[in-house]
Recover the amino acids of this structure.
């Protein structure tokens, strides 16, 4: 069996964005990914780190993390004003602890638009939307340049599973290639902690994502 795995998005269309947010209210495995990312943040030496999320989206991960860690500072980056509106509704009172930074990750000057230097950069289901391994590699390099020594990048994103006979959109590629791009960006250690919702036979665009961690 084979086919194509990919998805089309209209990130600046309010109806599409609300529909997307309603469809992807986090399931148990998605919540497990959030917990895995939070555990990485908790290993940082500081109790009140600056955390930057690439692709804030509807704010599901932000809410999960802010509800559980009361002292960190959170900056959410996105290029979609309509997603910021949805995220504000998701966050409720937690909104006051979030800085919203509207910038396009394809613009290589994005790190200059941040309000604080992050000790942790995190992301879920966002970087594959940049459309190519080269664009993801560029983000990895910008993250390396932005983080201090000991800082972490945790990317939970859709990947192309090993052994598949299906074609995947270009932004979804093998874990081994992600780890190689992280190494080439300069990170000292890089590892994939888990492959979530693995499915080889009949994959949907919402399955097959991994939690990849790199330490500077
Ligand atoms: C799936 S959502 C992220 C979900 C989020 N992690 C959560 O837990 O709710 C992906 C987000 O990435 C954003 N995005 C996609 N391409 C982008 C780009 N080039 N620059 C900035 N944000 C981008 C989209 O607007 C969207 O809000």
């Amino acid at each position: 069996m084979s086919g194509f795995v990919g998805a089309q998005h209209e990130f600046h269309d309010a109806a599409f964005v609300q529909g997307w947010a309603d469809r992807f209210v986090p399931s148990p495995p998605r919540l497990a990914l959030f917990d895995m990312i939070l555990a990485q943040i908790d290993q940082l030496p500081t109790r009140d780190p600056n955390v930057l999320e690439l692709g804030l989206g509807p704010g599901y991960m932000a809410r999960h993390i802010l509800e559980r860690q009361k002292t960190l500072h959170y900056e959410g980056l996105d290029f979609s004003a309509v997603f910021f509106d949805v995220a504000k509704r998701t966050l409720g009172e937690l909104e006051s602890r979030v800085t919203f930074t509207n910038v396009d990750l394809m613009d290589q000057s994005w790190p200059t638009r941040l309000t604080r230097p992050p000790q942790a950069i995190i992301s879920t289901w966002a970087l594959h939307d940049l459309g190519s391994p080269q664009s993801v590699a560029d983000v990895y390099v910008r993250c390396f340049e932005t983080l201090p020594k000991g800082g972490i990048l945790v990317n939970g994103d859709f990947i192309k599973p090993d052994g598949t006979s299906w074609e995947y959109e270009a932004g979804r590629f093998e874990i081994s290639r992600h780890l190689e791009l992280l190494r080439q960006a300069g990170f000292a250690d890089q590892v994939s902690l888990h492959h979530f919702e693995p499915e080889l036979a009949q994959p949907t665009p919402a399955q097959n994502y991994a939690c990849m961690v790199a330490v500077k």
